């Protein structure tokens, strides 16, 4: 019998969550886990109850900030962390699976929350045309293991 690893399941869930995003520019999903259990999930978008970019600005998305990023939305990592904290989850030692490597501000939040490991599917630097993944560099420099997720074929588990 062939089964997916928990890592593959969590990364697949992050990818599925990304499809919930109302962002016109990029859809990102994140899953926070601990000991093979899901603590929290998130995807990028404006705070609940405010607006949906794809409905208000369907052509170009919401207004951009000075760095060309969305000025109104929370990132998937932020949403996952905020929801976990709001519900009293302990994040110390947690693992995050995200479809896009964390930007530097999200990396600082991940570090401060006590998350110990981050797996990402795609590079934020490549997406934004930057020379390096500043968020990944920051996390690795300060002891959070941040690595690109290695897709694995289905494994046989007995």
UniProtKB/TrEMBL annotation:
Keyword annotations: Hydrolase, Metal-binding, Zinc
GO CC field: cytoplasm
Domain CMP/dCMP-type deaminase: 5-137
Single annotated GO MF: zinc ion binding
Pfam families in alphabetical order: dCMP_cyt_deam_1
Cofactor: Zn(2+)
Keyword Zinc: yes
Similarity remark: Belongs to the cytidine and deoxycytidylate deaminase family.
Protein name: dCMP deaminase family protein
